[in-house]
Input
Amino acid sequence: MADLHFELVTPEKLLRSEEVYMVVVPGSEGDFGVLAGHAPFMSTVRSGELAIYSGPNTVAARIHVEGGFAEVNEKGLTVLAEQATEA
Amino acid sequence: MPSLKSLKVRITSVKSTQKITKAMKMVAAAKLRRAQQAAEAGRPYAERLNAVMASLASKVTIGPQSPKLLAGTGSDQVHLLVVATSERGLAGAFNTNIVRAARKTADALIAEGKTVKFYLIGKKGRAVIARLYPGKIVHQVDQSHIKNVAFSDAHEVAEDLIGRYAAGEFDVAHLFFAKFQSALVQEPTELQIIPVPLTAGDDAAASGASAAVEYEPDEEAILTELLPRNVAIQLFRAMLENAASEQGSRMTAMDNATRNAGDMINRLTIQYNRTRQAAITTELVEIISGAEAL
Output
């Protein structure tokens, strides 16, 4: 299965741009996981923890994000966060 | 003819001025590099936000119930000019250029019979604007304590602006800042920030926005949340560009000043040497004619 292209951007810099297995995003109406090939989707993000999975059961990193929104399109997942701090 | 001593004093003073301008140039060059990096780092976010806004804009129709930030207040009588200048001088024509651009727009608006108000970021534009448009300055943001512009600074300003907008203090806001092109060229730029100008641009069509995108919550809710953020981002970008432009402008100005000081030192040194030679010649003539008389 192809990897998911994931980008995490804050106003100050492009924090991450990498291929990952899955990302769990704290959406404003509930957490959601994004795998490769996800349908086009857009959601606002609440403050919370964003988990990056490098494999089905391995969490590569957890990042605390504050506000913003996430967009899934054919190119991958882009999270625009107001603030992001690596946990 | 100035005396030898006074020439010497002047040369020393110009030399120390040159040292200062040279140091300022070096500092500006170092700061410029950092400011430029910051400005470039902020670009991806702004680009993506714009793309998303454009694709949303093509979905939402502007109606009476749509957010004020998007639709406007329905009139355009009161214009707020947000003028971003620097906190320090000695940056060449940097501040003058921004203020001039703002004045041009202000005069045009006043000629149309509109009310113009000023909202200043940075203190360097204050003197001129207060003199030309007395009593029109509604607020001034003090940035002298900020070393590197952070997003939270822009966010505060944006919230203040949106609060004033919601309170009906103005109908349209324009932002003035210097766009950074290179260390030599900074272009004063005007940008409308409120209401948010939405152009359903080519980006939307190019990124395949026509595909069925699911929204959570719905489009309107996302847009309502995005609009204030867009204002903050525009301000943030302007502040970053301004910071880079300021340093670029200062570097150029200080480079020129250093070179001028060098020219001046050369001229003064020549004059000093001539005066010294003239004094020696006079002395010799005096001695020789004295010896001949004996």
Notes: The interface with chain A takes residues 38, 41-42, 44-46, 48-49, 52, 150-151, 154-155, 207-208, 211-217, 221-222, 225-226, 229, 232-233, 236 of chain B (CB under 8 Å). Residues 219-293 of chain B form the longest helix (75 residues). The longest strand of chain B covers residues 172-180.
